[in-house]
Specification:
It is built from three helices and four strands. It is of the alpha+beta class. 14% of the residues are buried.
């Protein structure tokens, strides 16, 4: 079964307040076995446009990725993120040969 991923492109407007979101999301991510592959590292845009922060999180499958997003634990964390950031987030199925 193919893994599931969250791929986010984020603009953070208040880094201090965003830290509260990062602390709060740990509960959901631990519960659903999330693994950060990319977490806001340095990036170079070589085509098109991108927000300044990229995040890629791996889950065992798409259903687990979706369940984490829909969970009460993540919704509580997201409520902290929404006022201080904006961006795009997709849940995508990985490639499985």
């Amino acid at each position: 079964m193919a893994k599931g991923y969250w791929v986010g492109q984020i603009v953070v407007h208040d880094l201090e307040q965003y830290q509260a979101y990062r602390a709060a999301n740990a509960e959901a991510f631990a519960k659903y076995g999330a693994k950060f592959l990319i977490r806001g590292g340095e990036q170079t845009i070589v085509e098109g446009q991108a927000n300044p922060r990229t995040v890629v999180i791996e889950f065992k499958d798409v259903a687990t990725a979706q369940a984490c997003y829909d969970s009460p634990e993540y919704r509580a964390a997201k409520a902290l993120r929404d006022p201080v950031s904006e961006g795009n987030l997709v849940i995508v199925e990985g490639y499985d040969e």
